[in-house]
Amino acid sequence: MKLPEIFASPANVRAVPQGTPIFNAGDESGEMFVVESGEVDILIHGVIVETVGPEGFFGEISLIEDSERTADAIARTDCRLLPVNRHHFLVLVDEMPQFALHVMKGMADRLRRADQRAEG
Predict the structure, then answer these.
(1) Cα–Cα distance list, 4 to 12, 24, 82, 100, 118 (Å)
(2) Which stretch of DSSP H or E encloses residue 47?
(3) Given this structure, which CATH class describes domain 14-119?
(4) Could you tell me the residue ranges of all domains in the chain?
(5) What would the pLDDT profile of 64-79 be if each residue is shown by its tens digit?
(6) Which residues partner with 57 through β-bridges?
(7) What letter does residue 28 receive in the DSSP assignment?
(8) Contact 39, 18 (CB under 8 A)
């Protein structure tokens, strides 16, 4: 499954210049993002914990939990992002169960990498 194909719509694409914050910890959530091109750094307390590249996604946890952002997201390079709002997310989960599995796999991979970093 290629996420950019699911969300492809030129009207929906957000061009984000290098160095621009996409969101900050404490911000209200309302959408997650799929990276069509470029790279986005995810930071917790100013430390980069992950860099998300093309076909990757971020911001899904606060969207699922309907909670404030717990990390900062900053464009490492010029990016093209595809936002997915809560309504669209829920429709996709309902109509395309493989989308929900893809998101869960991505979250599990992130958790596994965080565990490995914690172990040193």
Answers:
(1) 11, 24, 7, 15, 31
(2) strand 47-52
(3) mainly beta
(4) 14-119
(5) 888 899 999 999 999 9
(6) 34
(7) P
(8) no
